[in-house]
Design brief:
Blueprint: H1 6-15, E1 30-31, E2 39-41, E3 44-46, E4 48-52, H2 65-74, E5 79-83, E6 112-118, E7 125-132, H3 134-149, E8 153-160, H4 165-168, H5 197-213, E9 220-226, H6 233-250, E10 260-266, E11 280-284, H7 288-295, E12 301-306, H8 314-326, E13 331-335, H9 360-374, E14 382-383, E15 389-391, E16 396-402, E17 408-415, E18 424-429, E19 432-440, E20 446-454, E21 457-462, E22 469-476
Parallel strand pairs: 4-13, 5-8, 8-9, 9-10, 10-11, 11-12, 12-13
Antiparallel strand pairs: 1-2, 2-3, 6-7, 14-16, 15-18, 16-17, 17-22, 18-21, 19-20, 19-22
Helix pairs in contact: 5-6, 7-8, 8-9
Length: 478
């Protein structure tokens, strides 16, 4: 857990009881008023960096989320992503081994209560969409509360695209799985639509119930739908806009309101203007400088909240994270397949052929990134588009943040080979003396240096020997 000042420790240890236990509502995670590309949480500026199990922590009854949250906490990671239970997967989906989003038969729990009628597609009784499962909401609130005690933010995805018939056939809202004669639709592409009033009524009630149950939790934000851009994108966007408005309306009388996210696209896509009610614009498999740069005008948080499909090696996801955050992103969340039922500490060895990576070594590398971001004054920094800098090496990518006067600069250097080398970074600096600290992105080792009485113009800042990538922070010292 991150170190708070003694004042914040005193205040929040007194206030942070479990959600909904008759305590005053706390100001939840918000956009930082001094720089809304980042967050404000419990009185301090915040970036969110995580490495998340495959979204089944709550809905999978066999998953020990306490052990999982303890592992995130031990790595100084402060965000997790989880699904509400309106969507669930069959075993083997997407080639994932031991998928937490695919509970064993009879071990799936969701907002709706089971009926007395057998016949749910993955074991147990069908669902009654007019009744809530109290055990589910107890589990959900405890998960959020336990995360909050560790300073971890929960992204709760209310809905997801269904992708194919197999996944839609497991949904409680499918007519095969409920006793309410609701959801008689064969085409999974048409399910999330404002034209289906029977489903819309069920969905809206679920949203309002969840939002009300979590109203006193300060460490949660809502993503309306995971990947709503497969299928009929026009219809899905109309539905997503409506559901975003439902969340806003559900919280209209709250003292404090939670942030809302839209999942915009895989890769990159321009969002021309701010969407009503939306404060976080999340992308999957993001292309860092393009994704962040083309949407920086929104003055909201730009996030990369799912990675994968780029092998199982650490380097691909580490470099994606560093590039994204040093391009001006405010949120990065890796999809970590080493968290499974029975391996909630993230000790499962990810297999070749799985759709992504994960493991303790990668989480330790994300911890280094989190520490680096918290070592700089990122609230007063912006993407350093006007900063002149270069290296003498070909095939080197530079990504940087800087304050307005370039007196504090953070640079990420990525070389596209694994041969150990030294990089001579050349940065245009104003006259004065400077200190610099190089950070090894794989080990966290720091190497200090200084430039005395620089006359102005390009200064050469030599790195230690490194391979693949390294980062440096530069600060004027006089």
């Amino acid at each position: 857990m991150r170190n708070f000042t003694s004042f914040y420790v005193l205040v929040f240890m007194l206030l942070l009881a479990a959600c909904g236990q008759n305590r005053p509502q706390l100001q939840p995670l918000g956009l930082n008023p001094d720089n809304p590309h980042y967050f404000l949480f419990r009185g301090k500026p915040e970036v969110l960096i995580g490495s998340t199990e495959h979204y089944g922590a709550v809905l999978n009854l066999d998953f020990d989320y306490i052990k999982y949250l303890e592992e995130l906490d031990s790595c100084d990671l402060n965000i997790t992503r989880t699904f509400s239970g309106s969507y669930v997967e069959p075993s083997g989906a997407f080639g994932i081994v031991k998928n937490t989003l695919a509970p064993a038969p009879g071990r799936f729990i969701c907002p709706w209560a089971r009926s007395n009628e057998p016949g749910y597609a993955n074991g147990g009784n069908k669902f009654d969409l007019t009744k809530w499962d109290d055990n589910y909401f107890t589990r959900l609130k405890d998960f959020v509360s336990q995360a909050g005690k560790r300073g971890i933010i929960v992204e709760l995805d209310l809905f997801s695209n269904y992708y194919d018939t197999l996944k839609w056939n497991l949904c409680p809202m499918n007519i095969r799985n409920n006793i309410n004669n609701i959801g008689d639709y064969r085409d999974h592409n048409a399910v999330l639509s404002v034209d289906h009033t029977d489903l819309m009524e069920v969905e809206e009630k679920m949203v309002r119930k969840i939002v009300n149950e979590l109203k006193d939790c300060d460490n949660v934000y809502y993503e309306v739908c995971n990947e709503p851009y497969f299928g009929d994108t026009v219809a899905l966007r109309k539905w997503e806009k409506h559901m975003t408005a439902v969340v806003v309306d559900a919280e209209k009388d709250f003292t404090f309101r939670h942030l809302i996210s839209n999942n915009v696209a895989n890769g990159s896509k321009l969002v021309p203007e701010v969407r009503p009610g939306v404060s976080i614009y999340n992308f999957h498999y993001a292309h860092p400088p393009v994704t962040v740069g083309m949407n920086y005008h929104l003055d909201k948080v730009i996030g990369d909240n799912e990675t994968g499909f780029n092998g199982i090696g650490d380097a691909n996801y580490r470099t994606e994270a560093w590039n994204f955050m040093l391009a001006g992103g405010g949120l990065f969340n890796n999809l970590d397949y080493s968290f499974t039922v029975g391996n909630e500490d993230g000790s499962f060895v990810v297999q070749e052929g799985e759709p992504g990576g994960g493991g303790r070594s990668l989480r330790d590398q994300f911890k280094i990134l989190a520490g680096f971001m918290n070592s700089i004054d990122f609230i007063n920094m912006r993407p350093a588009d006007s900063l002149r800098m270069t290296t003498t090496e070909q095939g080197t990518t530079l990504r940087a943040l800087a304050d307005k006067r370039n007196l504090l600069i953070a640079v990420y250097v990525q070389r596209h080979d694994t041969i150990p080398a030294i990089t001579e970074l050349q940065v245009d600096l104003t006259p004065g003396s400077y200190t610099f600290v190089w950070t090894d992105t794989k080990t966290g080792k720091e190497t200090n240096g200084e430039i005395e009485y620089h006359q102005g113009g390009f200064a050469t800042i030599p790195s230690p020997v490194y391979s693949e990538d390294i980062a440096v922070r530069i600060a004027k010292s006089d």
